[in-house]
Automatic annotation (TrEMBL):
The keyword Zinc does not apply. Homodimer. Plays a role in the regulation of phosphate uptake. One of its GO terms (biological process) is negative regulation of phosphate metabolic process. SUPFAM superfamilies: PhoU-like. GO terms for cellular component: cytoplasm. InterPro entries: PhoU (IPR028366), PhoU-like_sf (IPR038078), PhoU_dom (IPR026022). The keyword Lipoprotein does not apply. This is Phosphate-specific transport system accessory protein PhoU. Belongs to the PhoU family. Signal peptide: none annotated. Its main location: cytoplasm. It holds the Pfam family PhoU.
Length: 220
């Protein structure tokens, strides 16, 4: 009976990793669309969203069924609760990708100009946070998850820098306001991706150590 239960946990983990791959691909595509201004890539992001949403519901149902039928305890219970929360964060990463694609599509109506913000670099860092947090989940590595938390400050600093640079540009060159505002929102979307990666890392720590470190709490 317990063998079947642990096989179900493995199946749940595998399905979550499929979800993670889809969310990560959506972010990569949205940034590629920004970099190249290729609006056909935006359409790929939009078309993928229903599948991500459907998978989120399937994973939630699998997790709820396991809670109801198996009544797990201790680390198994924490694992399932963490999967439910990570699942929600991955769906929201997919939402951020859609938001970015919407902004890129709006920017397509204007000339492609150089803006004083390195969106690809910010995307690279926030995406690395997502990958690292998921690697921590795969390996059950709380120390690796902790390293993700420290990266969040860098993402926040880059987003703040983008805000000041683009705000200054709007004051100096009001005619560039549409492009600047869209880039500003994309920067904010990527900062939110970093936040979701932080949430995932915190859930890994909760699963492995039984410690709730959300909101800077260290109490188990």
């Amino acid at each position: 009976m317990r063998v079947k239960f642990h096989q179900s946990l493995d199946d749940l983990k595998e399905k979550l990793l499929v979800m993670a791959g889809m969310a990560e691909q959506a972010i990569q595509r949205s940034i590629e669309a920004y970099r190249t201004r290729d609006l056909s890539i935006c359409e790929l992001v939009f078309r993928a969203e229903p599948s991500i949403n459907r998978l989120e519901r399937e994973i939630d149902q699998m997790a709820l069924d396991l809670l109801a039928m198996e009544q797990p305890m201790a680390i198994d219970l924490r694992f399932i609760l963490s999967v439910i929360r990570i699942n929600a964060d991955l769906e929201r990463v997919g939402d951020q990708a859609v938001n970015i694609a919407v902004r890129v599509r709006e920017m397509g109506a204007f000339a492609n100009i150089d803006l004083p913000v390195d969106i690809p670099k910010l995307a690279s860092l926030s995406s690395a946070m997502v990958r690292k947090s998921l690697q921590a989940f795969i390996e059950g590595d709380a120390e690796l998850a902790e390293s993700v938390l420290r990266l969040d400050d860098q993402v926040d600093e880059m987003n703040d820098a983008a805000f000041y640079a683009l705000s200054s540009l709007i004051k100096e060159k009001p005619e560039l306001t549409p492009q600047s505002l869209n880039a500003l929102i994309i920067s904010r979307n990527l900062e939110r991706v970093g936040d979701h990666a932080t949430n995932i890392a915190e859930d890994v720590i909760f699963w492995v150590r039984g410690a709730d470190v959300r909101h800077n709490s260290t109490a188990p």
